[in-house]
Amino acid sequence: MQSLSDAQHQAVLRVIAEHRSRPGPLIEILHGVQASLGFVPAAAVPVIAEGLNLSRAEVHGVVTFYHFFRNHPVGRHVVRLCQAESCQAMGARELAAHAKRRLGIDFHETSADGAFTLEPVYCLGNCACSPALMIDGDLLGRVTPQSFDDMVAAGQRRT
Amino acid sequence: MSIDIYVPRDASALSLGAEAVARAIEAEARARRSQVRLIRNGSRGLYWLEPLVEVALENGRFAYGPVQPHDVASLFAADFLQGGAHPLSLGLTEEIPYLKSQQRLTSARVGVIEPTSVADYIAHGGYQGLRRALAMTQAEIVQCVLDSGLRGRGGAAFPTGIKWKTVLEQPIAQKYVTCNADEGDSGTFSDRMLMEGDPLALIEGMTIAGIAVGATQGYIYLRVEYPHAYATLNEALNAARQAGYLGRDVLGSGRQFELEVRLGAGAYICGEETSMLESLEGKRGEIRVRPPLPAIKGLFGQPTVVNNVVTLASIPIILARGAAYYRDFGTGKSRGTLPLQLAGNIRHGGLVERAFGLSLRELLYDYGGGSATGRPIRAVQVGGPLGAYIPASQFDVAIDYEALTGIGALLGHGGVVAFDDTVDMAQMARYAMEFCAVESCGKCTPCRIGSTRGVEVIDRIIGGVERERNLILLEDLCETMLQGSLCGLGGMTPFPVQSILKHFRDDFHAGTRH
């Protein structure tokens, strides 16, 4: 297990201090850590456990239960491609195949240039404009292979 | 005098370029020295016309759409600020047939008002329900909700008033009101539209619930996939607090109610109410065995109201206009209106709020205009990933709780996903099991193991391995999951699979299609 850098450790402690007095704070804290570090490092688990007087197993159990939390770094942009029924009805399977080919990766992987991580997601609530994807916080609708490629080109320019 | 222009901030409208359109309008107005005031509303829910730009004229709002940034200069040139003719002109918004024929009660203000403005909310009838409620006893408020016939719009359709009555009757000081905003069903977005387009309706509904049952704290459990709704809700909460509609002394009544948004973390199961409560407590979203019901032992072990967004957002109008007004919409035991959501392979996708009783065919063809691809609609999944697939031969079914149950389907949260005739239904059956395997909380065996075995059995059937024997095995497995699972995820995943076995069995014969 890679240990936390000083800056990471301080960031985790800050997030704990901010939320620990609220009822049921663990998930809020994990959101805070992931927002601040980009992921929830394995080495943050014992720090959080101690801060909340929980066992490491309890914290680990929560981190791993939720699809949104990840324990490894990701690319500069996270692309979440909807794979649910409505998007499937409008070609999401074909779009996923295209996206994987274009980026040279499978779901849950990061492109070699470190620009994109590709994740499946089950519904973004954009079902009247299927197929949909979310890149970082931005939602896109009626995505085509062409518009996907345009998005990739724009994302590669931004570092 | 400046002219009001509306450009939606709704997430779907933004996904089609509404932000760039808004910027282009601002820039063009500056260049032309036109006096305009840009208002960022929710969406009217006519998504094939988004980004939909509206101009406030003397005789009503005039619509143009779908507008792209490159259209903006020509709109100004055509004098659209005075309703000038343009190829994108749609006439008066309220006269567009898709909208005009609807019966919008719960979503009446969505797309109309500035979502986070308390003043605009009140100008459109907001907070009348809360004022009425504050003049009533707790029992009277609960009776009003009971009399309205309102049933939970999240999917389970349990009478809302009965839940509230149970919580009210608990002689315990600390109670909670929670809103399930974990709208995870594919094909549904009415919760999102409400939270982005009229968040104060949800806030008012929760405040009324809190006063009715004696809860001082509420939580909105919002899915993390909705960052736009998160921002809008928090803005609206601040606005409500500043205007005295939330806090220690709601409107000087001496009653206290506070409200907070909590984010989920990408787990479909957390839309199940007990799993949602676990998650709100900061734990793994594993479901709880019932009893005890959440109304008796819910959040942090205290009596808790758990209602969906649409349910809670329907409360203000019921209190404002009376139970009878709401109950007179609808049919049989399905009272009031339901915001239906048209999605998937459909030409005119969007929000259709109507009284119960509309037929599926009317929804798909009169509103939806048929498939987006122009091919015949072969199947429709109603009610999300746990809902049955309905074949074209049954499209005349009425959309109400009982009629859909009668054909082995369910209404759920009102999502309708259309598929054209290129769909491979065996793959959709496989996906139903695969989704359950990904999202199972793992607490009970039929769901955790059954879903994985289901994928394997379907793969064998599709691959032609002992097809007839494996079809029997799949039917048995569905029965086991249905009877033996602890909650609706494992217990209802068989519904889409069984409906495909019943109506689209030929698709399991590899090579006959595709």
Summary?
The complex is a heterodimer of chains A (159) and B (514). With 159 residues, chain A is α+β, with helices and mostly antiparallel strands. In chain A, 47% of the residues lie in helices and 13% in strands.
Could you walk me through the main structural features you see in this protein, from its secondary elements to its overall organization?
The complex is a heterodimer of chains A (159) and B (514). Chain A is elongated and about 50 Å long. Chain A has helices at residues 6-19, 26-37, 44-52, 56-65, 85-88, 92-103, 145-157; strands spanning 77-82, 109-110, 116-121, 133-135, 138-140. Chain A has a five-stranded mixed beta sheet with strand order 2-3-1-4-5, covered by helices on one side. Chain A is α+β, with helices and mostly antiparallel strands. Chain A has two domains: 6-65; 77-157, Glutaredoxin (3-Layer(aba) Sandwich). In chain A, α3 (44-52) crosses α4 (56-65). Chain B has 514 residues and is an alpha/beta fold. Chain B folds into four domains: 3-100, Glutaredoxin (3-Layer(aba) Sandwich); 118-327, Rossmann fold (3-Layer(aba) Sandwich), CATH 3.40.50.11540; 330-420, Ubiquitin-like (UB roll) (Roll); 425-508, de novo design (two linked rop proteins). Helix content of chain B is 40%, strand content 15%. Chain B has a five-stranded mixed beta sheet with strand order 2-1-3-4-5, covered by helices on one side. In chain B, β14 and β15 (389-391) form a beta hairpin. The longest helix of chain B is centred in the last third of the chain and has 18 residues, at 445-462. Chain B is globular. The interface between A and B is large, with 42 and 62 residues.
Largest interface between protein chains, with number of residues from each side: A-B, 42 and 62 residues
Number of helical stretches of at least 4 residues of chain B = 21
Percentage of residues in strands of chain B: 15-25%
Helix content of chain B: 40-55%
| Gross CATH architecture of the largest domain in chain B | 3-Layer(aba) Sandwich
Query: What count of domains describes the coordinates of chain B?
Result: 4
Question: Biggest β-sheet of chain B, characterized?
Answer: 5 strands, mixed
Average pLDDT number of chain A:
96
Strand line-up of the largest beta sheet of chain B: 2-1-3-4-5
**Unreliable residue runs of chain B:** none
Which outline of chain B best applies? globular
Give the strand tally of chain A: 5
Q: Can you tell me the CATH superfamily of the largest domain in chain A? A: Glutaredoxin
Query: Helical proportion of chain A?
Result: 40-55%
Largest sheet of chain A: 5 strands, mixed
Average pLDDT of chain B: 97
Number of helices, where a helix is a run of at least 4 consecutive DSSP H or I residues of chain A: 7
Write down the CATH topology of the largest domain in chain B: Rossmann fold
What is the H level of CATH, i.e. the homologous superfamily of the largest domain in chain B? NADH-ubiquinone oxidoreductase 51kDa subunit
